[in-house]
Amino acid sequence: xxxxxxxxxxxxxxxxxxxxxxxxxxxxxxxxxxxxxxxxxxxxxxxxxxxxxxxxxxxxxxxxxxxxxx
Length: 70
Hints:
By secondary structure, the chain is an alpha+beta fold. Helix content is 34%, strand content 13%.
């Protein structure tokens, strides 16, 4: 079966977009293929906390900060 150039370019572009999406989420520390639970917390003082900071419970990383708002 011979594929035309347009089909090959379409497959390449689709693969590149998927790789870019996966790569950006990987660099942010999010895994695309696992389920996620979202928890919200309100604190009065969060000095030094930034997005992508680790959330640690009893010495074990259980997640990361995704968003901060004031």
